[in-house]
Amino acid sequence: MGGCCETAGLGSVVLMSINEKPKLEATLITGRTIEQGVEKEYGKSSREYAESVAVCYIDAEDMKKLGVKEKTNVQVSTRFGSVVVKVLKSPRTPHPGIIFIPYGPWANSIIDPETHGVGMPSFKGVPATVEPAADKPVLSLTELLNAQFGKV
Amino acid sequence: MSVVTAVTCPVCGCLCDDIELTIHDNKVVKVKNGCAMCEAKFMGYSSEHRLLKPMIRKNGELVKVSITEAVKKAANILAEANYPVLYGWSNTSCEAISVGIELAEEVGGVIDNTSVVCHGPSLLSIQEVGIPSCTLGQVRHRADLIIYWGSNPWSSHPRHIERYTAFSHGRFKKSAWKNYVTKIKALVGRKKVQSAIKRLFVKEKIPSAVALSNFRHTPYLQTGKNSRKLIVVDVRRTKSAEIADYFVQIEPNKDYELLQALRALVRDQELEVDNVAGVPVEYLEEIVDAMVSCDFGALFFGLGLTMSGGKMRNIDAALSLVRDLNMRTKFVIMPMRGHFNVAGANTVFTWQTGYPYAVDFSLGYPRYNPGETSVVDILLRKESDAALIVASDPISNFPRKAAEHLTENPLIAIDPHMNVTAQVADVVIPSAFAGIEAAGTAYRMDHVPIPLKKVVEPPKGVLPDETILQRILAEVKKLKQANVREEA
Ligand code: SF4
Prior knowledge:
The structure holds two protein chains of two kinds.
Chain A: H1 4-7, E1 13-16, E2 22-31, H2 34-42, H3 47-53, E3 55-58, H4 60-66, E4 73-78, E5 81-89, E6 98-102, H5 105-108, E7 124-132, H6 141-149
Parallel strand pairs in A: 2-6, 3-5
Antiparallel strand pairs in A: 1-2, 2-7, 4-5, 4-7
Chain B: E1 2-7, E2 19-24, E3 27-32, H1 36-44, E4 55-58, E5 61-64, H2 67-80, E6 85-88, H3 94-107, E7 110-113, H4 120-129, H5 136-142, E8 145-149, H6 153-156, H7 160-163, H8 177-200, H9 208-217, E9 229-234, H10 239-242, E10 246-249, H11 255-266, E11 275-276, E12 279-280, H12 281-293, E13 296-301, H13 303-306, H14 312-325, E14 330-335, H15 342-353, E15 359-360, E16 367-368, H16 375-380, E17 387-390, H17 394-397, H18 400-408, E18 411-415, H19 420-424, E19 427-430, E20 440-443, E21 449-452, H20 465-487
Parallel strand pairs in B: 6-7, 6-17, 8-9, 8-13, 9-10, 13-14, 17-18, 18-19
Antiparallel strand pairs in B: 1-2, 2-3, 4-5, 4-19, 7-15, 11-12, 15-16, 20-21
């Protein structure tokens, strides 16, 4: 399917694979939320911090298309990796085709590391697919770190 | 119980210095004037995740050790490394940063600060194009048009709007807050009328979008000489966008096109398209009208601009737009700096080495070439062989691939919190919170230096970053001398 530029703006594209599991092609934006800003001050090993960043804000229409309800799990994948997070309905819609994950280890496991010669990876505007993943758990921080680095 | 006034908030680049703290029994018990993030910091800094004892990884486990042992181990790692990376720095005082740079020079490593993953591209652009800027005080007192581009101050700099821009009460410009409240009341009133009508004539559908579009497109501050206008450009309708007079919802990665289109319009050129970046040209014309007809405009840009496609070229375009606008009226531009002392890190780096970030001392003198000497690139190329992280959490902030290389080599973390980096580090040294348990200096986003206060004592045995770094530096120097003697 198209890259981010074609997908965004023209609305979201929902693909049906053979086993009829819907998939959403979207542009991933990562950024700050005030909840994440507050929780990080309490300490990043707190459960609240994980709850505030292991989430993905999706447009209500896109959620319908995907057939997912709020607080259920979805798998977000990019060329750089894949991660399971909880869906939250985006409070500021409409923004079809744009999904948002707050800064944190979950978002960073799927963003584009390439810095294009300026030293900074692409934290915003990465093409991604979202699919329902009711059967997969959201990893805790320790589990995530263990899976990624095997050292905690 | 005692009250300390005029405390500086060590959280975001706004560096609000009007915080009032009530201290009881060496603990902050009440925070006045701060936003939610400020309150969380002052009330939560001594939470259960606080680091209290230095630790070293032995047989895969972090075990508690004395501060002397931790410092020795850290110095050993750095002295033995060929190409260590010293990273972080934006959440500590300028005094600590200064020692850090000396340490980087001593060990022949690379020192980089967090601006490399936030406003690094902005700095590169500013070096190329230049920046017409001013202090936030000027904006507060004089600006009548505020633009936030790719920035959501409501969440990232909660008091920016209230203290310095649209809702602040300046000497020459009035706060827009009252108008906003009136507007909201009117909106709520209209909604009530609508639902009343709905109840009366159930079948008749009143589209709620009407109310919203009225709100978004009717500038409510057009009248009055002293009023201010607010424009927000973003890919999402953020909370900040909701209070704006004009909200421009732009397609992701299209900032460059939009900025260049605005430049053309400012120069009175015609656009031969209907839409740019998903925004109707008519609407853009309205916005350009507002821009050129203001007396003093201020454009604040955030990571939405530096991090999306085009990166530093976006900033080039934004700086050029402001340069063009200055031919018609007075306009300034400023990056919204995130961490409270990231501007200080850039400043101290520059005055000590000549460069704002990504400084490489491996040849014995400072070299600067972002893309080559910047920390993420070094990690992706797997070149570094040790790292010292001060007051930052790259393991949770860097892309996974870069973070991976950090964990594969000896890693030293100096931080008040048991953050993710500390959890995977080999040496962990707890430090006092700059601005709460340690005094110092920090630079606000407009490069005004502001003193940080020490309001409570740190936990027993916990030292400020500056002292820890000085001890590591002294130890490294000792090791080097010993080596020289051995060789002789
Ligand atoms: S706006 Fe920033 S500096 Fe001001 S109180 Fe809030 S967190 Fe602190």
